[in-house]
Amino acid sequence: MKVILAEALGMCFGVRDALAIVAGVARPAETTICGQLVHNPRVLEQLEMRGFHQVVEGARGGVPETPAVLVTAHGISDRARSRLTGAGKQIIDTTCPLVRRAHEAARRLEAEGFHVLLIGKRGHVEVQGIVEDLASCDVICAAAEVRTYPHSRLGILCQTTVNPATADEIIAHVQLHNPLAELRLVDTICEPTRRRQRAMQALVQAVEAVVVVGGSNSNNTAQLAAFCREHDKPVLQVQAADELDRAWLAPFRTVGLTAGTSTLPETIDEVHRALAAM
After folding, report:
1. How far is CA 253 from CA 99, 201, 206, 242, 272, in A?
2. Residue-level pLDDT at 42
3. Domain ranges, ordered by start, for the chain
4. Which of 9, 62, 150, 268 is surrounded by the fewest CB atoms within 10 Å?
């Protein structure tokens, strides 16, 4: 089996920087991570072994008992941040700067009188953090959800890991259904996401099937797998090398390999070696 790696794959700088900050925390047992640091089961297991307290994504609204609270790369709302500081908690902030930029864009649009349309995955922690700081907002997951909105000014931005093609389709539908509204678009899709999508476009043309490595609840990993399906390319999504399905892979002579932005380099290497050995 020939294995071709995508030109851009794996960990982005936001995740890398977050992990570097966490590595420097001197007292893990006195620190609660507010949600999942990254959507990567191996990383979460390593954090638990170091003694960090971790709360599940759905329980991020409370105030932890530990003196320090670590904000994940996905960010939190200013409302949540104020609640934590008001309770006397030390905040260790690993929010990705591109996520922070999306927060700022949403607040600025609302302050200038635009009703915010946020393109992204409803309920995702990054999306939730942005929405919580707005008086009103519509989250749009797909073009079919677009409608005529009762607002004369519409401001559009995206979750940082949205597929650019999906965003373009939704924006076109917003324009179609709201021809009289003033539209303002702020491009908040991160460049690592764009690079990985461009790499996928080249990869699916060069292989018979694709293996995507990443957490089962990682949005950008899911986007990579969805891209393959949209291009009628067989895709296998795994979190680690031991999840590779030899029988599924057997018919293919050329397989592509890519990975989500939360995937550790050593995990990609392990999957690559396992594929090459088949």
Report:
1. 39, 19, 11, 20, 15
2. 84
3. 2-9+192-276, 13-96, 98-185
4. 150
Mean pLDDT confidence for 243-269:
94
Contact (Cβ atoms closer than 8 angstroms) between residue 273 and residue 23? no
pLDDT attached to residue 60: 64
Q: What's the CATH class of domain 13-96?
A: alpha beta
In whole angstroms, give the CA distance from residue 64 to residue 173: 42
129-164 pLDDT tens trace: 999 999 999 999 999 999 999 999 999 999 998 989
**pLDDT exceeds cutoff 70 at 55:** yes
Q: 3-state class of 16 per DSSP?
A: helix
Cα–Cα distance for residue pair 264/47, rounded to 1 Å: 14
> For the domain 2-9+192-276, what is the CATH code?
3.40.1010.20
Instruction: Kindly report the number of other CB atoms within 10 A of residue 148's CB atom.
Output: 12
Phi, psi of 33 (to 5 degrees): -85, 125
- Owner of token pair 């650019």: 164
- Cβ-Cβ contacts under 8 Å for 163 (sequence gap 6 or more): 193, 197, 223, 226, 227
* pTM (predicted TM-score): 0.86
Nearest Cα to 269, choosing from 9, 1, 2? 9
What is the average per-residue pLDDT within 81-109?
A: 96
The CATH number that domain 98-185 falls under is 3.40.1010.20
Q: Can you tell me the distance from the alpha carbon of 175 to that of 81, in angstroms, rounded to the nearest whole number? A: 35
Q: What is the pLDDT of residues 31-52, one digit of tens each?
A: 999 888 877 888 888 999 999 9
CA distance 216 to 156: 28
In degrees to the nearest 10, what's the CA dihedral of 80, 82, 86, 92? 80
Q: Are domains 2-9+192-276 and 98-185 of this chain identical in fold?
A: yes
